[in-house]
Design brief:
The complex is a heterodimer of chains A (about 240) and B (about 270). Helices cover about 85% and strands about 0% of the residues of chain A. Chain A is mainly α. The longest helix of chain A has about 35 residues. Classes of the chains: A mainly alpha (about 240), B alpha/beta (about 270). The interface between A and B is medium-sized, with 25 and 33 residues.
Chain lengths: ~240, ~270
């Protein structure tokens, strides 16, 4: 036990007096930026794909788009996130001769990847809304797009919020692989603190605690949002 | 007002409507009755292209709205519809439900005017700028006043800020009716408006519909309420197996039905 307390003291010494906290803050920042911006991009892409996939398939253009969307979803769900990161960073960027910071690469890949997952979540959400809602909107002369955006999707979002929370939590945790392309996330910060002294026990324990705290906070946030959105269910 | 010519509708191999031709004139109250599965709801839903007709044409406002190239939204604004299950927007308050379409249409028009004026100014488009009056704010205020007036008419102004989930079935249906009224439609289609209601609430909805009828609204009603058909209808369409089997004035139809099928139907529904 004494040995453990000594290790804790050493860890806090590096963390507080030798600038370790800077790395942790930077890592935390990057982790959250990648997860949050990735999620936002994912929501936009996912909603667009879901809308295309539930559209009536009268027009050839819609059918082509639908095929493309299912290809996209298949591609991103069919490969691991790490593989996507590596391919994007080491294959796509050199081939297209583009320079991008590794955090930006991570954000892009996370956005594209979560877009594929969110599209399926969103599609389920849209299908869970009573078709009468769409008919009601169309019957007063609103267009398909307007009814979708103003009436159906808000109700769909309410239904899928718990699942979306899940997706966000998964994204936060998955950011721990972005060090594969050199983005400085939470994992890399604690790894570098640990490697200074070859003592990893306490840094990794602290890292685990931080992840748990983040996830708990997100869970809380989702609860609050759910309660807000349930307003129209209870009636007044 | 609505001219239906050779309307056919099939779902796969199931031919639901077979060559229906009829004309609905301004001010008429057409009541469609018939056994279940006779295609009466499908016929009504084809009138505003909620179901796309398989063939045939529906002339409304001088255009064949069965043609997919026609902008159906514009025509639906003049053709209200009331559903069996109300279909109020669950995520909007009663007031927002009523205001939504009028605000959307007026805002869209305003934006288009402004855009056109800008294009003309930049010499990208020919024509003279039209004077744009009103703002989105004013449009909303106007729609709000009108919505409140309509709510007062049905005595539900205190429910303006409630969500549909807190209304009774009868209240929901009455709100749905004034939601379609808010667009000043030329005709309102009613798809079994009282079938999903508790018996106690049927009266209040029928009362409002009678009220509309008295004010000269053109109505097409699919219903099982024979009393309403007799009292309010100016023409009865009796449908069976996707065809209009018989049509006539209610006083003639109910007293002296012409076909075996309609005699049989009436003997079962009228006690």
């Amino acid at each position: 036990m004494n040995g453990f307390m000594f290790k804790v003291e050493k860890f806090f010494d590096i963390l507080l007096n030798k600038g370790g906290y800077k790395e942790v803050i930077e890592g935390l920042q990057n982790t959250m930026i990648i997860a949050v911006v990735g999620l936002l991009i994912g929501i936009v892409i996912g909603t667009l794909i879901a809308t295309v996939r539930v559209m009536p398939k009268y027009k050839a253009a819609v059918r082509v788009l639908d095929k493309f969307c299912s290809f996209y979803v298949g591609l991103f769900r069919g490969t691991p996130m790490v593989v996507q990161l590596l391919v994007f960073y080491y294959v796509m960027l050199p081939l297209l001769d583009i320079k991008m910071s590794s955090v930006l690469v991570a954000i892009t890949v996370f956005g594209l990847n979560s877009g594929a997952y969110i599209s399926e979540i969103m599609r389920g959400g849209i299908l869970s809304v009573d078709p009468g809602q769409m008919e009601g909107g169309r019957s007063v002369g609103l267009s398909y797009g307007t009814t979708m955006l103003k009436i159906v999707i808000p109700q769909a979002v309410k239904n899928i919020l718990p699942t979306m929370g899940n997706e966000f939590i998964a994204l936060v945790k998955e950011t721990s692989v972005v060090s594969f392309v050199g983005a400085k996330d939470l994992y890399l910060a604690f790894q570098s603190i640990g490697s200074g002294t070859y003592e990893f026990m306490v840094p990794y324990l602290a890292m685990a605690i931080i992840y748990i705290v983040i996830v708990c906070l997100i869970t809380l946030l989702i609860r609050v949002m759910e309660r807000r959105l349930a307003k129209s269910d209870r009636g007044r | 007002m609505i001219e239906v010519v050779n309307l056919c509708k099939s779902f796969g191999d199931n031919h639901v409507l077979k060559n229906i031709t009829t004309t609905i004139k301004k001010g008429e109250k057409v009541v469609i009755i018939g056994p279940s599965g006779s295609g009466k709801s499908t016929f009504l839903r084809c009138l505003n292209c909620m179901e796309d007709p398989t063939s045939g044409s529906i002339i409304f406002g001088g255009e064949n709205i069965a043609d997919p190239k026609v902008n159906i939204n514009v025509h639906r604004q003049k053709m209200g519809m009331v559903f069996q299950h109300f279909n109020l927007f669950n995520n909007k308050t009663v007031l927002e439900n009523i205001m939504m379409a009028p605000v959307y249409v007026a805002t869209k028009k305003l934006k288009k005017q402004k855009r056109d004026n800008l294009l003309i100014k930049l010499h990208l488009k020919k024509g003279t700028p039209v004077s744009v009056n009103g703002s989105v704010h004013e449009i909303k205020a106007q729609a709000r006043d009108k919505a409140i007036e309509l709510l007062k008419r049905i005595g539900l102004e205190d429910k303006a800020d409630s969500y549909p989930s807190s209304l009774s079935g009868g209240q929901k249906q009455r709100v749905a009716i004034i939601r379609s009224l808010a667009m000043d439609p030329d005709v309102i289609l009613f798809d079994e408006p009282t079938s999903a209601l508790d018996p106690e609430m049927v009266g209040e909805v029928l009362e409002l519909m009678k009220d509309l009828a008295d004010q000269g609204m053109t109505m097409v009603v699919v219903t099982h309420e024979m009393g309403f058909a007799k009292e309010v209808g100016t023409r009865i369409l009796f449908m069976d197996e996707g065809r209009i089997l018989e049509e006539g004035k209610p006083e003639e139809f109910f007293v002296n039905p012409q076909t075996e099928r309609s005699k049989d139907f009436l003997s079962k529904v009228l006690i």
